Amino acid sequence: MKSREKWIERALLLAALSSVTMLALIAVFVFVEGTPIMVREGIGHFILGRRWAPTKEAYGILPMIVGSIWVTIGALVIAGPFGLACAVFLVEVAPRRVADIVRPAIQLLAGIPSVVYGFVGIIVLVPLVRERLGGPGLSILSAAVILGIMVLPTVISISQDALEAVPRSYREGALALGCTQWQAISRVVVPAARSGIGTAIVLGMGRAIGETMAVIMVVGNAVKMPGSLLDPARTLTSNIALEMAYAAGEHREALFATGVVLFIFTMALNTLAVLQSKRRTRD
Amino acid sequence: MAVAAAASIGLCSCGRGSTGGLTIAGSTSVQPIAEMLADRYTAVHPSFVINVQGGGSSAGVRAAQTGAAQIGMASRKLKPDETGLQEHLMARDAIVLIVNPANPIRALRKKQACDIFAGRIRNWREVGGREGAVTCITREEGSGTRGAFEEMVMGKAEEISADCIVQDSTGAARALVAGDRNAIAYVSLGMVTSEVVALEFDGIKPSHEAVMSGRYPIARPFLLLTKGKPTPAAQTYIDFVLSPESQATIEEEGYVPVRRAARP
Fold first, then answer.
1. Total-model pTM
2. Residues of A with CB under 8 A from a CB of B
3. Cβ contact (<8 Å) for A223 and B162?
4. Which of A280, B38, B158, B173 is the most core-located residue (most Cβ within 10 A)?
């Protein structure tokens, strides 16, 4: 009996390790394929170079780094306030029956394939931006709006958890001191949940920076430094996905190197999220 | 029946080789259509194995010359120093500039097209059109259509501007042009639909006839290359590619067939 327990334990450990091994293998593979060209070209040249023309051996990904950052920040500017407001509504304000309808709807939002978001973007949003605001329509703004909607479920559900973790006594105390409900929410509950909300934003960022398909469809993919929100741009992910199909040799390596940079970005964001939630448990 | 017999001979003749079938390699522009036709052939003849690889036109030429592949694929004319090969023209690929029907422009010269995509002409007024900033749409780096456009319109010295919007399929590029009256893109001739308008290039209206007669300037041949006389397996495939059904498929895919089926 005892030995059987041991075997099951080992099997479970193996299963747990396999996902870690996968991550390690992917990381090693991406770094092995991607770093040689970064070193050859010079890491500074690769990251700060402004010209990307792989068939002419120019590999500079600064416009894409900037593009990724703009699009991600734009998405968070939209998803942050909306997501937080929605979470506050669900946890603090909404009657049970309303929340029971809204919650599954948000879950559903997370289940829609990204290509569908992209399609809606290209059919509805892009022409709207083009007609009303000018420019080609395929732009950072369009991508930010679509991504903002896509990361809403992440931001909402994690902020919701954070708000629910705030003890009832805080609310009761605030109300007992004569706060209105809004004052209790804005002065007591939300500040008490702020590190959890911070985690929600950071994880939302991670999701936004890694999203590919929907972005390719609406961002325009032009490799240049974006000058305004209405300009097209290219993100790190769309660069890889766009060109991988035909890439060979150095070009392929350069795409892997793009992956390395993206990997570092996502790792940094995830670490930030972990640190933040650690801080929360310490508080 | 005859084809099946030829196919089995083909198999036997190269059964000693390591691949045990037919290897085709070369131009990534030809690859998709070559693959599609190979799949169609092997669906009917499951014992016949066809392996289609990319690598580019020059690699295709080399593969055919060295015998690494029984058939090489090239999407350009052979250079004078590329000798020892038999050419089998399977199709032609013509590139057409398209604009939105609401755009009054109906013709461009090569110089103008080059200036537009290089980012020097930025307003339609400069080529005699209405006031409006040009939105040029290009394909991704590495795409065969882009390669053909760069080679035949931009030339060696010019580069497609980084300001151009990049789309990863003909369908996407066409959809953008259909929705934006200031947009211009390039697509294969067969991909032109009524949502967009194909422009005259250097005074020549793009049409199958103009391409086949060689008058339309932005067109390139799709060649199957063999070292001397094709092996029986290679011959079987070439015959299949040149058959009326395959040529019809080639036309459906947007290329210009070598033999055009009589239209009803």
1. 0.79
2. 51-56, 63, 122, 126-127, 130, 136-138, 216-217, 220-224, 232, 234, 241-243, 245-248, 251
3. yes
4. B173
Binned at pLDDT 50, 70 and 90, residue A54 comes out as confident
Residue B264 within any structural domain of the chain:
no
Chain A with chain B: Cβ pairs closer than 8 A: 64
Fold adopted by A62-282: MetI-like fold (1.10.3720)
Q: Do B88 and B99 share a domain, yes or no?
A: no
Could you tell me the sign of the dihedral formed by the alpha carbons of B188, B190, B193, B198, in that order? positive
The answer to whether residue B16 scores a pLDDT higher than 50 is: no
Is the separation of the CB atoms in A53 and A60 below 8 Å? no
Q: Do B164 and A222 touch (CB under 8 A)?
A: yes
CB B7 within 8 Å of CB B14: no
**What integer pLDDT is reported at residue A264 of this predicted model?**
92
CB A184 within 8 A of CB A175: yes
Sign for the CA dihedral angle at B201, B202, B206, B212 comes to negative
User: What values do phi and psi take at B89, rounded to 5?
Assistant: -75, 120
The ipTM value here is: 0.78
* Of A24, A104, A47, A79, the residue nearest A254 (C-alpha): A47
Q: Which of B141, B174, B182, B184 to mutate to test the interface with A (most CBs of A within 10 A)?
A: B141
pLDDT per residue as tens digits for the range B64-77: 999 999 999 998 88
Using a CB-CB distance cutoff of 8 angstroms, which residues of chain A are in contact with residue B54?
A: 246, 248
Return the structure tokens found at A167: 């003890």
Question: Range of B253's domain?
Answer: 2-92+219-257
Identify which of A122, A127, A224 has the shortest CB distance to residue B162: A224
Task: Quote the number of domains for chain B.
Answer: 2
